[in-house]
Predict the structure.
Amino acid sequence: MKKVFSSADETLNGVLKDGMTIAAGGFGLCGIPENLIAAIKSSGVKELTIASNNAGVDDFGLGLLLQDRQVKKMISSYVGENDLFMQQYLAGELEIEFNPQGTLAERLRAGGAGIPGFYTATGVGTKIAEGKETKEFDGKTYVLERGLRADLAIVKAWKGDAQGNLTYRKTAMNFNPECATAGKITIAEVEEIVPVGALDKMQIHTPGVYVQRIFAASHEKRIEQRTTRAA
Amino acid sequence: MKKVFSSADETLNGVLKDGMTIAAGGFGLCGIPENLIAAIKSSGVKELTIASNNAGVDDFGLGLLLQDRQVKKMISSYVGENDLFMQQYLAGELEIEFNPQGTLAERLRAGGAGIPGFYTATGVGTKIAEGKETKEFDGKTYVLERGLRADLAIVKAWKGDAQGNLTYRKTAMNFNPECATAGKITIAEVEEIVPVGALDKMQIHTPGVYVQRIFAASHEKRIEQRTTRAA
Amino acid sequence: MPWDRNDMAARAAQELEDGFYVNLGIGIPTLVSNYVPEDYDITLQSENGMLGMGPFPTEEEIDADLINAGKQTVTELERTSYFSSSQSFAMIRGGHINLSILGAMEVSEAGDLANWMIPGRLVKGMGGAMDLVAGVQRIVIIMDHANKAGESKLLKKCSLPLTGQGVVDRIITNLGVFDVVEGGLKVIELAPEVTMEEVLNKTEATIVGS
Amino acid sequence: MPWDRNDMAARAAQELEDGFYVNLGIGIPTLVSNYVPEDYDITLQSENGMLGMGPFPTEEEIDADLINAGKQTVTELERTSYFSSSQSFAMIRGGHINLSILGAMEVSEAGDLANWMIPGRLVKGMGGAMDLVAGVQRIVIIMDHANKAGESKLLKKCSLPLTGQGVVDRIITNLGVFDVVEGGLKVIELAPEVTMEEVLNKTEATIVGS
């Protein structure tokens, strides 16, 4: 069962379908599967539903998929960094389902963990809870949120091995572990493929069972807000 | 905010109360907070409800708390290794609430994560689901299980630091991370306290926010089933 | 000649596919690991928090922090990863494990499984069995066809409290291999010298399409 | 003289207690970190997956893999730990963070908060704000007392879509400090030279017990 592939294009071979749901790791432009996103753009696949905390910026990350109108719907918590998104949204060309950030993370985790629904206090009494079931526990009201699975998950890790074991680096971890569990097929792009056994066995963030395909690539790692202090 | 204490007794000072609920890490005798359990025995605290996957053996682990009848109720998935448990249970001196192992783990995680209830297919159509609400999602039936919090969580880790950051070793991790999140107060016993900054920041299993008190101690680490192959 | 424990384990090993992630129950299912085809890449999950379980340790390798779900000392492999209980059962409940091979007290023709509790006898608990049968993609049972009193363990309806409802896909007994299908159990294979007549005589569950 | 941004941040820093785990929102709340008492051990959480957030990096320290919830480059400290988004919000939702200091568009006398959406304007999303106000132990708001049109932002009822219902504990404005109590808002403190009369004139929300 060979999991290691040579490129983003090769890992996506036979996987993409119009109308599919894709869960994409990353927070802002940090820890995004940038090579897979570029390959999905090239593929021309359309009518995508994408679950991702953000929508990238106009010319990088998931924003690339908006240029050719490949996205039908985003499930996100914040899309404020993407002007193209706003134009298409206001023109009625793009749907958005806002999920609170923690609810989105938990929905992906729950989906991957076989939990079809869970209750949270987040959003109770707000627009987010409209049309959703609520329930009282110990005198407090909670809203029912659904587990979320995706046809495909695309994640970006730091190091990985041929078994599909992954580790992430610093805050580039973010939504990647949750997306990895939520994908019916999960593809990981990593900075480096290391020999099986080289990763610390007690420190593997995503065990290989969740990862079907993996490849190594270089990453631009664009920075959104370059803030510094005097040296 | 000093978190480091010198002994199990010292960490338990002012914490124990008759009738309290304690979540205890460990699977069998592996990764159990053995020093804290011994100190709880010495304290004489009574009427405890203990959430722990197992009940130890007659003369080690949580079994020690049964000797003086300190336990009112166990929430466990398997208690078959403890004869004393069985005697007290059959004599009506001890209650048991069986939870499937994965449900128990998820209840503790949910409790610690502010999720009061979640749905699982585990146990549907069995005694475990009796008296519990069920709900259909996508044509399949699931049972509602509750998040579980404890007045006190006692966990055993490998290495920890003065901030309460913890790492676990091999399968001694088991229920410890979940218990750590579920405790209103969490006390950790570790094999070694290392300087803050010595643990790999990307590899801290339990961030210090969950741990209020910590101490280092030696551990017997008794083995239940010593199975070997020829060298 | 009906199958013995090792024959059943060897037959169960045919359920494996290259690349499978597998959880083996305690008892006969454990023996299946002795029959994994050499060219197969199989990863064993242990629900106490380990993916990539190795063989028992040598005396020198014994590590109290390294046990399997049966509380036996085991070893790790190059591929091994460790994780917490909630993560382990997320993997199980979420359907990421391809196959679980388990023992049983009773199986019904509807695929109900009973393997954790005998009323009136000491109740030890279900451990992870209910999660495994509810979450793993495919459940294969290995058990003797009859109990010690000679009564069929493949029943129309389980008499014991259930571990799971409609969860069993395939049953391997000393007499043969049976699939849970619409209307009852279907004979897939018979052990050497076992006849269909013998199976019909020794099975309470409805045998269909045979 | 009403407080300016830095005065408000300094006043908000008085809400800190030694040992607190704190999540600071974007904008004025970020300034609070400049006023942490030196002998306090405060740990900042960043909801994108970091506990123990350090200051902005020097030009040499910049790391694209190390940002805060505002997508700004930051640094780590000795105590820092990193974790995934579901773990980060488990910490928040589970009530393990002691205090969150956030900005607001409107707050009602019942403690309702609106800070994510203006109907008819571009909707960018709530990010982690709804989770923070629902889960963190104590919510303190820093905001101007009035909007640019001079209208009170402390209202009887929020006009904008809510971020959370009954979630605010304390509000720090340029005019003073107000607690959400039974029946309305209670004045805890006034900025220098600000009178109760001025507050009553500039506040739509019910002021009680003053």
Remarks:
- The radius of gyration of chain B is 18 Å.
- The interface with chain D takes residues 1, 109, 111-115, 161, 163, 165, 181, 196-197, 199, 201-202, 204, 207-210 of chain B (CB under 8 Å).
- The mean pLDDT of chain B is 96.
